[in-house]
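Journal club prep, notes for RB
We'll compare a predicted complex against what the paper describes. Inputs for the 6-O-phosphono-beta-D-fructofuranose case:
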Amino acid sequence: MIKYAFFIKSYPMNTIKKIGLFTSGGDAPGMNAAIRAVVRTAISHQIEVVGIYQGYIGMIENKMAPLQMREMANIIQRGGTILKTGRSAEFLKAEFRTTAAKNLKSAGIDGLVCIGGDGSFKGAQALWAEHRIPVIGIPGTIDNDVYGTDDTIGFDTAVNTALNAIDKIRDTADSHDRIFIVEVMGRNSGFIASHVGVAGGAEEILTPDNVVTVSKIVEMLKDSRARGKTSSILITAEGQKPGRAYDLADAIRSKSNFDAKVCILGHQQRGGSPTAHDRILASQLGAAAVQALIQGKSNLMIGIAADKIVEVDLDVVTKKLKPHDNSLINLARMLSV
Ligand code: F6P
């Protein structure tokens, strides 16, 4: 008996009877797979699950309904989120968080699972800090810009969706000997851009943390023409201002004879059936989130690091920025000679 004592956890007995589950921020493919995992794990442990619709908006406006085991059928392969999602400006104010907490308590909810990005986690963290409602976060965003996890639900699908489009653009770029600037999503982050850039054989990748001057780009294009290249693909993350690819094309035109075509991939990157990778990740994180609540834990994000499920304090997740490693950008440059 003694040799197993090491494995006995010192958490209190499960007191969770009803979990509130919501998706928040931008939707991401695989959110439904995570919902399915949370609901089915919870019900298997005799815990009820209440779906909260449109994220924090539904929490404030009391848009909630119980979720059943069988409702989870045939959603693992669906993009979007059956719980809908939203970005709530009201939830940034303490008075609305108090209303939300009252709604949760009168619905008998004694634990929350939040599927979203770091903005959504700030709200979850506040519910724990101000109202002591236990919360567990699951990272779900196509941007992959959440500190403490190598991967977020939806990132792999978004990269593959963008790549699919870029492969097609390459055909027409090659036929016409053209330059294309392809704009991918990523408000503050360059993860989609750098991954898509390497996988799509791009010559240059522009991200919020890799600012390249127009003169450098023109120089690179001239060099590549001198080496015999007839077409080029440049990738840019949208940054704070979607449509910046047009500004870049104008700037290149004004400094050279190059006429770059623009393709903005936009919100198609947020939709579609999740890849196997995202479905598996969502299933693992969803099940682990319920286990964490059962063990009496709170204010944690369940993530993945070096292929292992990890628990990271939400106070850390929401304070730190995930570093973007520019080595993929350098690799794309080197391999696109
Ligand atoms: O969810 C992340 C994201 O898709 C970013 O890449 C993008 O900048 C932003 O959301 C767009 O948000 P919205 O659809 O609310 O305009």
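Talking point for the session: The first strand starts at residue 18 and ends at 23.
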